[in-house]
Amino acid sequence: MSAIDFQQLVDGQYAPLYRFALSLSKSEADAADLTQQTFFLWAAKGHQLRDRSKAKSWLFTTLYREFLNRRRHEVRFLNIELDEVCEEEMSISPNAHAFDRATLLGALHEVEEPFRAPLTLFYLEQFSYQEIANVLDVPIGTVMSRLSRGKALLRRRLLSKEELRGNKVVAFQSDRRKESDG
Amino acid sequence: MDNREAKFILNAYRPGGQDADDPRFAEALEQARRDPVLERWFSESIGFDSTITKELCAIEVPVDLRESILAGVKVSRPLRSPLVRWSIAAALISMAILGSLIWHNTRSAHLAGWQSQALDVVSSLVRNESSFDVQSHNADELLAWLRANHAPAAQTLPQNLDKLASVGCKTFSWNGKPVSVICFMRPDGGLIHLVTIRTSAESDRELKRQPRIMQQDHWAMATWREGDNVYMLALQGPRDQLRAYLL
User: Fold this and answer.
1) Model ipTM value
2) Would you state the torsion angle of the CA atoms of residues A95, A101, A107, A110, taken in this order, to the nearest 10 degrees?
3) What pTM was computed for the model?
């Protein structure tokens, strides 16, 4: 890869990679370091990737693995039950417009990491469930489960913040009774 | 499919509409079209997702990050710990004292010109008379930096060398050919140096993949050829110590 190609890759991907790293690490310094490390690894190993159209996916996968490698020595993986998603949780609908960016990011950071990673890829990069499965190396069903659960957790966190601020909850609360399963 | 299952699937539906033709969503989308309650939930959900996407995509990125990446400069990773920093300093000082005492006795007619100059460079580094081009404990970063700067760099490190923390790397030119040196910290506190130069047919014809080990006074050196590169691994100590890093 030429220096120009590398620069184009950096220009196109460094910002979304940083945002993904920030969502994972919760620290701006760590996010910047993870982003740099990812491009260092690309410079070292990217030539092994034959299909250049997969460079973006490679970068996100590598950043995620690097994050997991670093975290392995810090905190053991949270033993979170990927249980069935409760429909009630999926129906919580806080008013996202009522929050500033910092609050939204704070709520996202409060979502447990196994759900936060797919959620961030979904929101930030508009990755499909298939692409998320590739990046995180998990089955498609797991991605869908984590997206559902992750969104429910995010809504719950935002709802808590909304209630703390005394805002009215905008939700399907009244509709839920009417809702049929059919 | 009930509404709970439909919601489960539709939660993976991207708000930009990219998944409209994906058959995995077809049944759930159809369900949402038929059921006004589900349709309203889906509409709210898409709106929620769009708002989150918009806000998260607007998170500011450090202004110097792009330049730092392109320049290959690390802006945020400090040395691992003060202990490691002090151990590196102690190793460099002890190497400097030892090196200054024995350096004049280490030359040999068996060394190629680039090898001799590489040992000069290493000696200069350990005596703190010159500095590394880049310092990092991660050898992959140093290798990446070398490649980015068109300097010779190993494709893969010897297995036991790969386990060591690197200290830094330096490049120099010998007869117009670029040469690189990466210094690693050994568990005993000493240093070991990997020198890399690209193969030149006339001078490296005799070199093989199997390392040729030499002992010159206090220096143990191993030289071998692999692919387009010729490598020299050097440390101050007996050759048996060196063998451990050639595995």
Assistant:
1) 0.71
2) 170
3) 0.51
